[in-house]
Amino acid sequence: KNPQGAPDPKLAIKVQKVGVVGAGLMASQFALLFLRRLQVPVVITDVSQERVDKGLAYCRAELDKLVEKGRLSVDDRNRYSANLSGTLDMNDFADCDWVIEAVFEELKVKHDVFTRVEAVVRPDAILATNTSSLSVDEIGKVLKHPERLVGFHFFNPVAVMPLLEVVKAAKSNDVSVATAMRVANDLKKTAVITSDSTGFVVNRLLGYLLGEAMKAVDEGIPFEEVADAIAPLGLPMNPFDLLELVGLQVGAHVLDSMYGFAPERFYKTDSLHQLAKLGRIRTKDSKGNKTGYDPEAIKIVSGRTRT
Ligand code: 3HC
């Protein structure tokens, strides 16, 4: 079903090759999904060969795991693997008709990426950003053709979460949005079209939940108590596990953006930045099972702003 506000699906272009800028956790996860669901060549790039190799290795290891689980044939694994390539040369993106980035959440970095991408791709290529809280129109300011840029916001873990936010910025045209909806559909995701407002829809809501959880620990309530209190709501994860899942630095950026957008409505938490530097909230055993909360993390938050 075409959601309300979606342009005519016939306007969508058929994507024949995908370019992914960034080979981090999020980008590698969706590169894998493009390989499996769109079944087209996917090329990934990043700032160093080491990062590119790490992204490629992640995709190949996940394909191997699917074969081991009996969910993918060896032939399909080999086909998808052959469709995957990594490069440091942006010219390898020249024949991509869908290029999506998931690089560091800083406007300057995104501007640099899209300037370099637009210099090589065809005039009809569609560009997408997986930004979680920057303005898509702001990101598109450096483009000669900002009408071909849309937001395409995945959720972690990409393979499992059904939702995708397709962000229709003020300048996005119908061809770009229709193509994004078609890609979302081919990925078997449920897409909603959102406007280009800070945090779109999901991170506005999550911003409250995560912000309030951080506020509670900043006020001296122990991590366990906050986690236990929220458990009866039946959320699949407590806020601290969710912060670790999305990445503490990403979480801190989202909360900063929401606070910048509406300081009277969102909570700014310096301690989350410190937790991001520490790199963890939870302690884990040798098998990776969560065992408790890290003593250093407890020190960072304890009683910061007790009222
Ligand atoms: N990659 C691939 N598959 C994964 C995965 C991962 N990282 N994590 C879990 N899965 C798969 C498992 O393989 C399993 O698949 P199967 O049933 O086919 O075997 C399935 O997911 C369920 O996994 P588990 O049984 O291990 O664990 P749970 O039932 O506890 O589910 C979870 C794990 C899906 C992560 C669940 O806890 C969950 O939904 N958590 C909330 C996640 C969430 O809210 N994400 C949104 C974050 S916001 C965001 O990303 C936006 C950004 O801008 C901040």
Short description:
The protein has helices spanning 25-38, 49-68, 74-83, 107-120, 136-139, 174-186, 202-218, 223-230, 239-246, 248-261, 270-278, 295-301; strands at 18-21, 42-45, 84-87, 98-101, 126-129, 149-153, 163-168, 190-195, 282-284, 290-293. With 307 residues, it is of the alpha/beta class.
Give a verbal description of the structure:
It is a single chain. The protein has 307 residues and is of the alpha/beta class. The protein has two domains: 187 residues, NAD(P)-binding Rossmann-like Domain (Rossmann fold), CATH 3.40.50.720; 99 residues, N-(1-d-carboxylethyl)-l-norvaline Dehydrogenase, domain 2 (Orthogonal Bundle), CATH 1.10.1040.50. Helices cover 45% and strands 14% of the residues. The protein contains twelve helices and ten strands. Strands 3-2-1-4-5-6-7-8 form an eight-stranded mixed β-sheet, sandwiched between helices. The chain has a two-stranded antiparallel ribbon with strand order 9-10. α4 links the parallel β4 and β5. α2 packs antiparallel against α3 and α10 packs antiparallel against α11. It is globular. The N and C termini lie far apart (50 Å). The relative contact order is 0.11. The model has no long low-confidence stretch (mean pLDDT 95). Bound molecules: 3-hydroxybutanoyl-coenzyme A. The site of 3-hydroxybutanoyl-coenzyme A has 15 residues, from α7, α9 and α10. In the central section; belongs to the 3-hydroxyacyl-CoA dehydrogenase family. It comes from Rhodoluna lacicola.
